[in-house]
Amino acid sequence: MNNKSFVGIKKLTLVCMLFPFIATSQIKNVVSTHRVFPKIDKVSEFEKAITAHAQKYHTGDVKWRVFEIQSGPDFGGYQLVEGPSSWEAFDKRGNLGTEHTDDWNRTIAIHLTDRQSASYSVYVDSLSTVAIGDYSDKINITHVFPKPGCGPKIVGIIKDLKKAWTADGSTVAVYSANSSGPTQYALVTRYKQGLKEKADGFRKPFKATYESVNGAGSFDKYLENIREYTNEAWSELLFLRPDLSSK
Fold first, then answer.
1. Is-above-0.85 flag for pTM?
2. Which terminus has fewer CB within 10 Å in the chain: N or C?
3. Does 25 score more than 60 pLDDT?
4. HEC profile of 96-121
5. Residue 151 lies in a domain
């Protein structure tokens, strides 16, 4: 073997050894969400400003998907979703610079109330029935908050739910909150066929589907587990606003 071939083999071996670490560091399964609430009399000004800001500062890896919250306790708010990305990318993102921050404060923040929230969530492939990037324009988010120490129990409950979602064709993406307040799992139902999926008769009764894959009497046990292991659960409808989102 000549020296050139030996060097080539050494380089290939090094790449193969590093590949698992490179692949792990580039997993794009993290999303950042920022919820804001415009003043009632400033909605049109807010929407105009958020559109201009997104097109100027939120493209490529930091692009936004903007949702309008249609129901629930956060009705009237807007959810700005950035990602999916990796933790490394968020680490390097920073605040996108002084010009970006000044534009936010000058053109958007002036139209907002003091109410807002921000969070990071990690997509959980093993609990989901739809790929992270397989989106829909209308979604339902069910927020599930386990009691302290009961996170693994909730994961087990969701695993059984996944069997039923798979059986009846429901497309649900599951996210786990990370460094964002109480332990939370967000079950995001993506209505690929629109809100008609919510109508009675569109699918078999969920209890029947659940017991067909988890056994007779399993649905009552599921309800018992929810009562025992969760602090709270609530849901909401959100509609994508492509006109406000990054292009």
1. yes
2. N
3. no
4. CCHHHHHHHHHHHHHHEEEEEEEEEE
5. yes
